[in-house]
Amino acid sequence: MKKSSISVIVPAYNEAGNLEGAVASIKAAAEEFFADYEILVIDDCSSDGTGALADKLAAADPHVKVTHNPVNKGFGYNYRLGARLAVMDHVGLIPGDNEIVEESVRDIFSRVGSADMVLPYHTNSEERSWLRRGLSGGFTAIMNFLFGRSLRYYNGPVVHRRDLLSKVKMTTDGFAYQAEILARLLKEGRTYIETGMRIRSRQHGHSSALRPKNVWSVFSAVARLYWDVECCSEEKGVPRAAWWLLGLAFALRAVYVLNVKVLPWCDMEVWDQARLALAAGQPYQAHWTPLFPLLLAGVTRVFGNSYVLMNLVNAVLSTGTCLVIYLGAREAFGRKAGFLALLLAAFYVDFIWYCSVMLAETLGLFFFTGAMYFVIKGRRAGLAGLFMGLACLTKAVFIIGLPAFLFWFWHRRAEGRWLPKALLFAGVTALVIAPWSLRNRYAQESPSVLEPTWADTIFIGHNPYADGGPDFDVMDTPYGAFYRDPAIKPAERSRLALEKALAFIRENPGREAQLFFLKLSKHLTFGTAFGFYLHPYPARGTMFVLALLTNMLAFLLACLGAAHAWKDRNGAGLLAVIAVFVGVFVTLFCAEGRKRLPFIPALLMLAGHGAALLPGAIADLKARRAAALRGPLGAAALAAALLVLNLLYQTATRLGDVLKRFC
Hints:
With 663 residues, the protein is an alpha/beta fold. It contains 27 helices and 7 strands.
């Protein structure tokens, strides 16, 4: 019994010596296997009489139909044109070069209907040149690797169901047209069957497949296809492309930390001593929140004492933060924004560098970013509160974000029941923190919620020697001598620090206004936390420059994302996180790259959104659309210009210090 019908597309460019034989083999096979058929010859502006021959064949047989391109369009364009013209149940392709032997055409047609697609592959590829075989094999290997398949050939004369082909997105005019179609349909779960085919050497003319522009068009099309299908697909879960990028993120961090030979110093010494004490079963004596040394103590007891291992734990945590940034940006702004945010996070230099130091920020960032993700998801206020509480128990600075989260819940009030969610979030956060607060009250004789030394940073930002940054020189002066006095308990020291800071604020309003702008300019520059540490870390100068560049890219893209999302239910929340942390540090505390880390995940999510919007913004600029320039795009440009001017100011005023530290 014959199958329903088939449309066979026959692209032909200067195939006067081959076209008649190709059409004859198609006719013979189609009449044997199909109740009806049509042969769509596409003459691609040939100059050797191919068009006239095609017209002659059409005049002699009503099954043959001819279309003439006024200019040469390319193989992919011809296929897309033929697919639009096709009216039969299936759509196939047999090139007009007559390279496929008649028996193979019959075999291909005989398998139509057994699956959604019939995928032919060469069984005698030695008929082609070694260069073409190499390029074809390499292309197939790359496609299989990128898309997780094991097909034998991507560029063969595939036969599709027309109803499926009519719906698939086709964008390329080059030789990668069929690879694009296959990647998209296979992503949808469409079925296929592979069948071997034999080819013969061309009898007339020569192939144009190996032209440099064709090779380039193939690989550029594959790059676009991978971005569209794997990176920005609407599939559930994390796509394979994102897992590859997460693997790269971990590799970057692991390679860096494996080269770090610097032992803990400064704050790291406190964490290290606390870790070792806990691992040995001794009580926790440090004044700082306990979660980070507890984690490291557990790792130490299981795997032994190794600074490299501690750093690798940080690398895992940092990679986990990248994953949560991806999930949050994807949920808030879509797949493209999510993947671009992940790309920025994977290469964000401060994240990489922080893996090499024994500081609590990396663990705290993971929990704090998790809290943001659960708020973005909605209906997860309890989990968000749990992660917020864990972040605060890792590093007290994260408690600053609490008002931003409460605002975030309020801003989403249109979704209903915002107040119960906000109360649940705050309540769970308080419950997680409460045992540690009680410990401070009774064991440390301090009423502080998280750390008894919380006011020290306020003192650093408000004293006669303050310059807006984390300048601890005041501790070596009589004014700050109390800070070094071992007889003063931490809680008392914090009380004295707060009294002195408040007195300075009251007595020096002019200097306070000046310090505000100094701190604002330092906090919102493209600098890096890496610049604060003077020890000889690997590739110190290179890392500093790369950190500057990645911060610049993230900040500028975030301006674009924020300008378009500040009214959005999640965009406003992310902006609130940034605004609260910036506001607190430029008023109460001091500007420091390390203290800027808590809002970087929110910044990267907005930057991913901005990167996704960037092509449209560029198009608006090229078209000089006045409305766009006056709207969000104009606001983003103004904010970006202010940031760049601030960078120039910081460079001019601190160039000597930078050169001394890193060059």
